[in-house]
Amino acid sequence: MGGMITTLAVANYRSLRHLVVPLGRLTVVTGANGSGKSSLYRALRLLADSARNGAIAALAREGGLASTLWAGPENGTREDRPQGTVRRGPVSLRLGFAGDDFGYAIDFGLPRPSSSAFGLDPEIKREVIWSGPFLRPAGLLADRANGALRLRDGRSWLAVPGVLASYDSMLSEYSDPQRAPEILEVRERIRSWRFYDHLRTDADAPVRQSQIGTRTPVLGPDGADLAAALQTIREIGDADALDTAVDAAFPGSALSIEEEAGRFALRLSQPGLLRPFGAAELSDGTLKYLMWVAALLTPRPPALLVLNEPEASLHPDLLRPLAGLITTGSARTQVVVISHSRALVGALDADHAIELVKELGETGVEGQGRLDEPPWHWPAR
Q1: Gene3D superfamilies under this entry (predicted)?
Q2: Where are the alpha helices (DSSP H) in 261-341?
């Protein structure tokens, strides 16, 4: 669906005071604990929430705008920058991305004083879509300033009647395929993004029980429908890649799905064992690896797939097969891997490797100066 993201930009979100990074077909983000990896992951999720009108609620769950804003001086904390204590610009949390075809940015700010019980909800101050890899006036296609939305109409602008609520994104509230096909395109592209960070393998995890089986081209966020997802790959996806991925991790093993009265149960036959093991008997690492098989070999690949610490619970011997699986998946969809495992990072043949570092509370990219960043311009308020 559409072109891939080539640039991700974040401003004033937690420790990400100013971050502009390139993304490739397969991008690996690494760094020490506390360097900002989780903040970058959350920023991507917030962008995805914007297309579903859920960014305001997501910020509220994080403690509100005041809790998520960069807490240091306005100009940063590095020693070569002035550290003024008086804010000159407006309070602003900004998120954006761009590709060769379209770019999108959203700017959240403080609410105007009111008597509403929701007076702490941040407001969307500016929201824009443009053509090309970075924002320029001639490339603007859709421009939302506070509640007013205007659309490019040839060489002029068309004002959209009505006012958008301060908490509504134009991506979710306006969809006219004739007047604004780019809004529909960007919305559907972002809505296809897929995130995995909470695949459950604990003793009480639903995946360890038989599940009702229906066609499942997309593994659920907690992995509970693993058996159905694997069977779907076998029937309508790349069954050979599935068998290859299992054999790479567990040589000589065979995966099967048993169906009884509409319920599916996973079985893994291994050399030397007299019977196959079910999901309830498999180790956390084995089960987690099979979940990554289902996620990465999905018959319905998203525009972007983001994996947060996929090495968790895996035996070191499984990291190289996982790297091969991720590489296979990246041939079908853009993948971002956020990891602290040097072994996994070293085994991945990534287009871009981003190592985050934190200096005086501010996250940056190791070896990247301002002149090394992709071109990026934020829309002014």
Answers
A1: P-loop containing nucleotide triphosphate hydrolases
A2: 284-296, 319-330
